[in-house]
Amino acid sequence: MIAILDYDAGNLKSVEKALSYLGEESKITRDRQEVEKADKLILPGVGSFGAAMEQLRKYEIDKMLQEAAAAGKPILGICLGLQLLFDDSEESPGVEGLHLLKGSILRIPDTKGLKIPHIGWNSLKLQNNGRLFEGTGTEPYVYFVHSYYLKAEDEGIVTASTEYGAHIHASIEQGNLFACQFHPEKSSETGLRILSNFARIQGGNG
Q1: Does 169 qualify as catalytic in the annotation?
Q2: pLDDT in tens, 37-63
């Protein structure tokens, strides 16, 4: 079972629907026992970094994520969920992220001819053989909605990037931690393949 973590951040039902379409059992929950029983966790989210961290702490989901990561349980962050896995964000100065991965979240710079937030489809440049992208082709096309982007400290964890006013680290993989700045649940067949690949990943620390 895949637990979709509920911290009042929206966008949960579309993830659940996509997993159901793939025949994967999932549950929207913040119950500790349910989360501990789950094989994998998905941290979706839309909204602001600071408010989201406050909610994660309120429901102790931050602790559940730290424990799951330490146990080697596969975790997938989506959009804001990707950003929360890292250290901090320009959106909410002084607010610490989950520190599960090293890097900062920066605002997309104002660029003539580019609208912020970035809403729409972009192609990805794949690198470092990310397991999420098996079978998606060389330049998969995916759907973004965001005003902030990841700059990972270690380029070695970046599995996909795109360009939109900046060089955006669009997906990462480190051990059993995975994350996408884009929305796989809204990215048509490519996105479904990415979610299916995640569902097949084995957990544990070996």
Answers
A1: no
A2: 999 999 998 889 999 999 999 999 999
Which domains are present in the chain? Answer: 2-199 (3.40.50.880)
Query: What's the CA dihedral at 149, 71, 197, 127 to 10 degrees?
Result: 50
Active site residue 183: yes
Q: At 191, list the tokens.
A: 């996105």
Write out pLDDT tens, residues 136-191: 998 999 999 999 999 999 999 999 999 999 999 999 999 999 999 999 999 999 99
Name the catalytic one among 79, 118, 169, 173: 79
Among this protein's residues, is 67 annotated catalytic? no
Give the HSE-up count for residue 180: Cα atoms under 13 Å, Cβ half-sphere: 27
Local structure of 135: helix, strand or coil: coil
- Confidence band, pLDDT 50/70/90 cuts, at residue 84: very high
Q: Which residues, other chains included, contact 110 with Cβ-Cβ below 8 Å and sequence gap of 6+? A: 116, 165
Are β-strands 158-163 and 167-174 bridged in parallel, bridged antiparallel, or unpaired?
A: antiparallel
Residue tagged active-site, from 16, 91, 173, 185: 185
